[in-house]
């Protein structure tokens, strides 16, 4: 068996599957072999569905052999975050309360992937109820970062980030309410795209915060993220937040030409108090884009100074409303960190919530004004390198700061505004990947993807990946 197959991207594998050079069964076996080799240490999976996956792969093989090729995702193995519903299958949400919950319908994104011929092979570990950024789950165990098993993979979609980085899935989906796609993407050295709010349906995804939640792809390449956006995007009447805006051929339109592109930099917020190693990697990426003909333009978004307040009030209040009954009736079934955050949400006032929504409106207007002058905004994804498992404090240039406050500082504004944002690795420092965030105007994911594609072509990672040979 060629386990190296599992290290390839959708873009590399799809033509081989289509042309019958690679069997879907062979590819699924390679992915499952990596799970056997690495998941015992990494703990990215809540559930591995080996026999189901092999049966699905055999069906895909028969369909392709008979000339019924469905497209780029046909026969591609994918494991998804265990917060997305599959009909007649468990969805734990990483919790004890829902450990025996069985969904009676497919999430819209699951239905679309099934129609595309994806082979599903497992449900991925996550922070309990997606309410946290470490994926240190008290019920299913801590997920570990493939780059360094002592470090967190980020969260809440930590299992997705770790599984993609360790070649235990070809691609995955995450959910993002304060950064939960982009944070693990940055921490694990992969691509994580949070599309515009309303671009991808959330029907069949257990909510954390109705007005902040997003679903998006987590992949090995920008092409793969663009491809999944094409498949998953589109209006869904079952989701009241879905927006009827046409999608594009994002993967076919990728263009690495950034000549004349105007990149906005908001230094007073997005480059304030950043680990020097992270800053150096991001600044290097910006210099490389300038060499390709892009122009850097400073911008000011004054209401960003209040963004953390607005994000935390909105997410804690809405999450506590969702979990209120269980918090009252069975608080002992929540992990300590999640229970604490839900209790904090119960203390927020109506005044706090209304003020936070007013800040969101100001941010919408200020970001819109900024995008009249620039094409995209670039920043670090995280202001620090991935910290050790269990640490509640992060060190930024010798300053001890709260992990919870710092971890969503740069990602949260994308949720408050609903604007598309992508994290792409832009280098490695002290053995850990550094993520760069690209934000764009609403429903203009193509701009974000094209800048990411140009950065990917620069090969800033220089082939560096998680060293899986040290995992036993």
Automatic annotation (TrEMBL):
Keywords: Ligase
Annotated ranges, domain Amidase: 26-449
Gene Ontology MF term list: asparaginyl-tRNA synthase (glutamine-hydrolyzing) activity; glutaminyl-tRNA synthase (glutamine-hydrolyzing) activity
EC nos: 6.3.5.6, 6.3.5.7
Family: Belongs to the amidase family.
UniProt name for this protein: Aspartyl-tRNA(Asn)/glutamyl-tRNA(Gln) amidotransferase subunit A
Organism: Planomicrobium stackebrandtii
Lineage, broadest ranks: Bacteria, Bacillati, Bacillota, Bacilli, Bacillales
């Amino acid at each position: 068996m060629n386990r190296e197959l599992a290290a390839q991207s959708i873009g590399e594998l799809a033509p081989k599957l289509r042309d019958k050079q690679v069997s879907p069964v062979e590819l699924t076996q390679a992915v499952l072999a990596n799970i056997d080799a690495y998941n015992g240490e990494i703990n990215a999976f809540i559930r591995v569905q080996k026999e189901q996956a092999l049966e699905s792969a055999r069906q895909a093989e028969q369909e392709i052999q008979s000339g019924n090729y469905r497209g780029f995702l046909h026969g591609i193995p994918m494991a998804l975050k265990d917060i997305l519903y599959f009909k007649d299958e468990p969805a734990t949400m990483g919790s004890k309360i829902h450990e025996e919950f069985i969904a009676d319908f497919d999430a819209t994104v699951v239905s679309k992937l099934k129609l595309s011929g994806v082979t599903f092979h497992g449900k991925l570990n996550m922070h309990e109820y997606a309410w946290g950024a470490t994926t240190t789950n008290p019920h299913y165990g801590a997920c570990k970062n493939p780059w360094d098993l002592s470090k967190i993979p980020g969260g809440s979609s930590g299992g997705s980030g770790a599984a993609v980085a360790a070649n235990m899935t070809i691609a995955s989906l995450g959910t993002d309410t304060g950064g939960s796609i982009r944070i693990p993407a940055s921490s694990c050295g992969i691509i994580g795209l949070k599309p515009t709010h309303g671009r991808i349906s959330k029907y069949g995804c257990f909510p954390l915060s109705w007005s902040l939640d997003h679903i998006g792809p987590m992949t090995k390449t920008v092409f793969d993220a663009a491809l999944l956006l094409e498949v998953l995007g589109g209006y869904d009447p079952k989701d009241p937040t879905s927006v009827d805006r046409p999608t594009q051929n994002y993967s076919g339109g990728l263009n690495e030409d950034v000549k004349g592109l105007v990149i906005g930099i908001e230094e007073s917020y997005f480059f304030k108090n950043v680990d020097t190693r992270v800053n150096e990697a991001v600044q290097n990426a910006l210099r490389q884009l300038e060499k390709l003909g892009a122009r850097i333009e400073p911008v000011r978004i004054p209401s960003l100074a209040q963004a953390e307040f607005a994000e935390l009030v909105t997410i804690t209040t809405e999450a506590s409303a969702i979990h209120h009954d269980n918090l009252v009736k069975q608080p002992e079934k929540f992990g300590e960190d999640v229970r604490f955050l839900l209790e904090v949400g119960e203390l927020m006032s109506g005044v706090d919530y209304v003020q936070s929504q007013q800040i969101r409106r100001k941010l919408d207007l200020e970001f819109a004004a900024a995008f009249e002058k620039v094409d995209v905004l670039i920043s670090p994804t995280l202001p620090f390198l991935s910290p050790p498992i269990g640490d509640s404090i992060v060190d930024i240039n010798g300053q001890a700061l709260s992990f919870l406050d710092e971890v969503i500082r740069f990602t949260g504004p994308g949720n408050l505004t609903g604007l598309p944002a992508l994290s792409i690795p832009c280098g490695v420092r002290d053995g850990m990947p550094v993520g760069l965030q690209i934000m764009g105007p609403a429903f203009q994911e193509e701009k974000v993807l094209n800048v990411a594609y140009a950065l990917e072509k620069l090969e800033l990672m220089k082939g560096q990946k998680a060293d899986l040979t040290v995992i036993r």
